Every structure is written in structure tokens, then in C-alpha cells.
Predict the 3D structure of the following.
Amino acid sequence: MTGTLPDGTPYSVSTYIANQARVTAGGNGFLLTNWNGFSTDYHGLELTAVKRLSNRWMARAGFAFNNAREHYETQALYDTKRQTRHGRSPSRSSTAGSSRR
């Protein structure tokens, strides 16, 4: 794309257009999604207190609690019809129906 700026200076900007033959040869790209029966949640709390400088002293204190969890239902562990991004079937686990914490 080319053009002229308001002050008369010409410019040229390169654009990118994908080569359709290479896109098709690469499997038309990929889409990453969660497995059926897989979910995550996150709960966090952060507290901060500051005592401003007075009487020649100050203090800062902080506390953080974080809890990130992954949940797997039975179908998430044994869904062999769905392929991973690299074309391999997911490995099976012996912890069906449990959640990892």
C-alpha cells in the first residue's frame, strides 16, 4: 500500500497476504479449545496495608491467596475421538472422574 502524507511525504507499507497453497498444505491452520469435560477456575484474594510515615516510621504488609484448579470429568479423560494439535490421541489416565488440585 502506498500513499502520500498530508505534508507531501510519500509512504509505502508492506502488507501480508497468506499463500493459499501453503495454508491448505498445512491443514488450514488449527483451533485450540478445551477438551469436553475439562474446565478451570481461579479464586484469589490479595490484601495490602500501608502505614504512612508518621512519628518516624512506616510499614507495608501484603498477603495473597491464590487457588487455581483444573477439573476433569470422565469424558475428558477418555475422549479418544478428539485429536490434539499435533494429531496424536490424548493419553489415558487412571484417575477417571477425579479433579486435580
In short: The chain has one domain: 2-100. Helices lie at 20-25, 74-77. The chain is about 10% helix and 40% strand.
